[in-house]
Amino acid sequence: MPQASRAECPSRNIVNDLSGSDSDSDLDTDTSADLAFYPAYTFQASATWFRWVKLTAHDIHCVLEPHHKYAADITTSSLGPGLPDHRGSGGGGRDDAPLLLFYLNHPIQFVQVIGVVVVVEEYFEKFWLFTVDDGSGATIDVRCRKPEKEDAREQNDVVNSTKSDKQSGSTRIPSNAGKEIRHDMLNAISNKDRDGHNITTTSTSSSADKSKSTIAHAQPQPQSQLDTADTDELTEDQILHKTVQALQIGTVVQAKGTISTFRSTRQLTLLRLTIVPDTTHEMALISSRTSFMKLTLCKPWVLSAADQKRLYREAQDDRQQGNRQAAKRRERRLKMEEREKRHARSIREQYEAEERQRAKAAEAARRAGVALQDDATTQ
C-alpha cells in the first residue's frame, strides 16, 4: 500500500497562514495547553461534529491530534448500524476503526478532501485504494471496501433487472433498502454542511442525476460503465462503488469519510465520493475550505456554562429515556418468553392428551380384535 507523504509537521501556527490573520491574533502553540476539552455529550453543539469538515491532507496527518481524555469513551451514538463506534484515539483496539481527533479543541469525526487522484491501486481483493494530492505538501490514501461476492452479484442483478424493467415499464424496489438508515444519517450531515456551494452535496440516491452528470462530464470514456439509464435504481453503496471504479489518474475528486490508520499512517475511509467537473467548482470548494478554516477552525471552541448544563440535562434525559426504552424492551422480551413457554406447555399438554387418547383407542381396538378372534375360534 503506498504510504502518504509525511512532511515535517510544523506547529499549529500554520493555520494562521491559511487564515491570513495578523501576528497579534496568532494562536501560539503554548495556548494549546489551555484549551478546554468539553465532555463528549457536548460534541453535538460543536460546529464541526455533524459536518464534513474540509481539511487538507497535511492537516489530517500533522495538525489533527487525539486526546487522552477520550481514549476509552464512546463519544457518539449517532453513527447508526452501518458505521462503527468512535472509541477515542485508539479506535477501540482496531487499527482501521474511525478516529476521534481534534483541531485545537474542535471534535472531528467526518472530513472531506479535495484533490487530484495521483495513484489508483486495483490489485487488492477486498478494497479499492487511491491516493489524493491536494497540493498541501502531503498526500492521503483513500480506502473503499469492495462489496462482498454476494453483494456484487446482487448489484449486477439490480443493473440487469433495471434494464429489463425499463424495457417492460415496471419498477423495482432494491432488496437492501434497509441500509437507508445509515445513508439518511450521512445525508443529514451533508444537509447540515451548508456553505453555499452545491458541489458539496454528496452523491445520494435522491441526487443520482447530479452524480451521473458530473461523472459523465469528467469521465466520458466508455470504461466508466456509468449509464444514466442504469443508475436510477441503484443504492447509495452501488453508486459509490461505480464512481470509484470510474476513477482515473488526474481526476479531481471530493472524497468524504472518516479517518483511520494503517501501519501508523492515517488514511481516509471513504463514505462519499463526488467527481469535481471543472476548475470553477474546485476553486469554490477550496475557497469554502479556507473560509471555514479562518472563521471556525482557527478559533478555539468556547461553550458557555449554561450550554454545558443544558447539554448535560439533555444527555441525562436521553440516558434515562434510553434506560426506560431498554426496560420496556426487556419487559417485552420477558413477556414474549413467558408467552412462548405458555404456548409450548399448552401444546405439550395437548399432545400428551392426544397421545393418551390414541393409546386408549389402540388398547380398545386391540381388545376388540382379541374378542373377535375368540369368537371366531369358539365357532
Structural class from helices and strands? alpha+beta
Under CATH, the homologous superfamily of the largest domain reads Nucleic acid-binding proteins
Helix content: 40-55%
Which spans of ≥5 residues are poorly predicted at pLDDT below 50?
1-7, 10-31, 73-94, 168-178, 195-229
CATH first level of the largest domain: which class?
Mainly Beta
Mean pLDDT: 73
| Assembly annotation | single chain
Secondary structure: number of strands: 8
Q: What kind of sheet is the major sheet?
A: 5 strands, mixed, barrel
* Integer count of domains: 2
Order of helices and strands: HEHEEEEEHHHHEEHH
How big is the Rg?
Answer: 30 Å
Overall, the morphology is: elongated
Q: What is the count of DSSP helices, taking H or I runs of 4+ residues?
A: 8
Distance from first to last alpha carbon: 99 Å
Physical arrangement of strands within the biggest beta sheet: 4-5-6-8-7
Short key terms for the protein model shown above:
single chain, 379 residues, OB fold (Dihydrolipoamide Acetyltransferase, E2P), DNA binding, telomere, Stn1_N
Please provide a brief summary of the model.
It contains eight helices and eight strands. The protein starts with 13 loop residues before the first helix and ends with a helix.
What's the topology here?
Elements lengths: L13 H6 L33 E2 L2 H7 L37 E3 L2 E3 L2 E11 L5 E7 L5 E7 L3 H20 L11 H13 L15 H11 L17 H10 L6 E11 L2 E11 L3 H19 L7 H74 L1
GO cellular component, one term: nucleus
Main location: nucleus
Pfam family, one: Stn1
